[in-house]
Amino acid sequence: MNRFEGVRVLLTGAASGIGRATAVRLAAEGAHVFGVDRDEQGLAETGRLVRSPYVPHVADVTDERAVIAAVDAAATALGGIDVLVNVAGIQRTTPIESLSVADLNLLFSVNLVGTALFCREALRHLPDRTGVVVNVASIAATQGNPYMTAYAASKGAVLAFSLSLAAEVVGRGIRVVPISPGTVATPLIHDIEFPEGADLRYFGRIRSLLGSAAPEQIAAAIAFAASSDGGYLTGANLRVDGGSGT
Predict the structure, then answer these.
(1) pTM for the whole thing?
(2) pLDDT for the residue 211
(3) Which pick of 16, 27, 189, 234 has the fewest CB atoms within 10 Å?
(4) What is the dihedral of CA 155, 243, 237, 35, to 10 degrees?
């Protein structure tokens, strides 16, 4: 398939996991990808896997000036921006008894503020009628996850932000699609540490019987949402969760 032939994509979180898989998938379909992450080595490794024009750019998504510079650099390098995909995010376990303001600030700064800033800046470049924004939320936004109150709240904010943004820009014909993955086999998941003695039985109720998704499976959903095949999809939460909680 060449659904993205010549399409210019600005992608955050491109250095690993879902972001890397998305860069590879979209490039395989012809996209020109501008990948943003703070991990320079990871960006370079993604570049070795991408078989299409690819520009790596190191930036911290929580730094407003860095975001403005990254979007401007993407528009210059690609000659414009057609699609924005916000994958960059972090996950932390934060038991309520030890939840701190620092935890909340970190999770909201990366997951919500970074997403919102890239949307704000990229919308100046996205073309009317064909521009697309895909924001990665999480099933944690709508489904309880013990020890993850702050993470869930930040992803709930991403979801709410995306739905309202979709309503705001629909008059321009720009689509905004939030995607909510379930458990995905990425380094983000592998690094999670639960408190000693944590009761994890609840997770058995909400985990898919299909197991964890591969990053490539989430990337495939992102590719659909951002392509013309998803041309009538906007302002709707696309769950890609293997039937979690059903």
Answers:
(1) 0.91
(2) 73
(3) 189
(4) 60
